[in-house]
Design a protein that fits this description.
The protein is of the alpha+beta class. The chain has a single domain, classed as Transferase(Phosphotransferase) domain 1 (Transferase(Phosphotransferase), domain 1). Helix content is 41%, strand content 7%. The protein has nine helices and six strands. The strands form two sheets. The protein has a four-stranded antiparallel beta sheet with strand order 1-2-4-5, covered by helices on one side. Strands 3-6 form a two-stranded antiparallel ribbon. Strand 1 and strand 2 form a beta hairpin. Helix 5 runs antiparallel to helix 8 and helix 8 runs antiparallel to helix 9. The longest helix is centred in the first third of the chain and has 20 residues. The chain starts with a strand and ends in a 19-residue tail after the last helix. The N terminus is likely disordered. InterPro entries: CK1_Ser-Thr_kinase (IPR050235), Kinase-like_dom_sf (IPR011009), Prot_kinase_dom (IPR000719).
Amino acid sequence: MIVKMPGQCVFLVSMRTLSPTGNVETWLALAVGLGLVNALSPLHDKGFIHRYVTPWNFMVPMPFSMDNIVKRMVIMDLSLATRWSPEMAYDAAVRFAGTVKYSSERALNRRTVGPADDFISVIFIVAELISGKLPWRAVSKIDKCAAMREKFTETDEFRRLPREIRKLYGKLCDSSPSDKPERVHEAFESALDRRTGSSLWSLSAMPAWLEMPGE
């Protein structure tokens, strides 16, 4: 189902719905990742983390274009957002908050999370866009999903990620929840530049299947 909202926006999940193959080109998935990072970073700068990063909680203004995807992604749900500070203590067990499919291993293990965990969720969304699925798509139990996260780097879905994003994933997993990750934008931009160059920003670069019905 494609949900179109007033103001000519659609949920990010509609992108896979529209795709005839269920996945998208790597450069387009990277553009989505960069758009999500751009949407989340101001939230982190204001001292909050999202904790609920999924394709259902972000919208893209219409028409689909690189400008709208990368620069104008809209956060639709802040119901699980919570305050974050590098001075806070992060060694306590907590109740799980988020979505099993896209949450980080740390979140699934019921540990306190930080900005890095939001960005790990972004990488899972990008991996799903590229491969059409995640390794744990049929798994609903939190503990089993947490165990599968430990082996994510051994999966085809991980190997299909550009090397810049694979390296970023490792750094994010190794970071402390009290850290504010650096060079996240740069990793996505570098991966994009390596594939597309300046032509990325041309509206004509959008795949034909991204045209919305009635437009």
